[in-house]
UniProtKB/TrEMBL annotation:
PANTHER family: HELIX-TURN-HELIX TRANSCRIPTIONAL REGULATOR, ICLR FAMILY, HTH-TYPE TRANSCRIPTIONAL REPRESSOR ALLR. GO terms for molecular function: DNA binding; DNA-binding transcription factor activity. It comes from the Bacteria. This is DNA-binding IclR family transcriptional regulator. The keyword Ribosomal protein does not apply. Residues 18-78 form the HTH iclR-type domain.
């Protein structure tokens, strides 16, 4: 989420250009979950895109250096994987967290992100869109302003905020974007590192009503993270 709060309705975020970008990120997100047999068909099933569109996007992503075709299988390109690892605080964390994040999304319908520090800012190490369209950049690698709930959680209490809650949590009740609410809590990582698990929902379904589910998922992430260093 890269915008500050606006007055009045959020402007529409549609358009052909955004549709192409959204489709490309759907393909990138689904690619690791596919194998060689019927790979394009499986991508079409996972993304909800027609097969010809998947074919076209794969070609465009290959030209951009985001994917490669290796032994008949489409895979994420090394440059893209390297970019993700640059902000990964624990090797394998993103892959290990993916099932928990997908489960939380299925349970709440919210956009779910695992946010980590990146130098002086914050970035979504993993992110899946919610069931409703939201005025946010719902993709892995998206920058997160310090004013989001996740940013407040990761600020470690240095900045007092009335939006802090107990058990290492924070809320965003349309404080960053009109019509958007968020709830985030801390995820403790081995070695003293930290991440934040955040959900985002429309104001009609306040994110804090799913607080228990977010905390439960955060504890599951901590167990998975601990297993990575055993």
């Amino acid at each position: 989420m890269t915008q500050e709060r606006t007055r009045g309705p959020v402007p529409p975020t549609g358009g052909a250009g955004r549709g192409v970008v959204d489709g490309a990120f759907r393909v990138l997100h689904a690619l690791p979950e596919t194998g060689v047999p019927r790979q394009v068909a499986r991508l079409a099933e996972l993304t909800g895109l027609p097969r010809p569109t998947v074919h076209r996007l794969l070609g465009q992503l290959r030209q951009a250096g985001a994917v490669d075709l290796v032994d008949g299988r489409w895979v994420l390109a090394a440059d893209l994987l390297g970019l993700a690892r640059r902000v990964e605080p624990l090797g394998g964390l993103r892959e290990s967290a993916a099932p928990v994040i997908r489960g939380l999304r299925a349970q709440t319908g919210a956009a779910v992100s695992l946010v980590v520090p990146d130098r002086a800012a914050f970035v979504a190490l993993e992110m899946v869109p919610g069931q409703e369209a939201l005025p946010i950049d719902a993709r892995p690698g998206a920058a997160m302003p310090t004013t989001t709930a996740a940013g407040i959680v990761l600020d470690d209490g240095r900045t007092p905020s009335p939006r802090r809650r107990g058990f290492g949590a924070a809320v965003d009740d349309q404080d960053v974007l009109e019509g958007l609410t968020c709830y985030a809590t801390t995820v403790a990582l081995p070695g003293g590192g930290r991440a934040a698990l955040q959900i985002a929902t429309p104001a009609a379904r306040p994110a804090d009503r799913f607080a228990a589910a977010v905390h439960h998922a955060a504890r599951a992430l901590e167990r998975r993270a601990a297993a990575l260093v055993r």
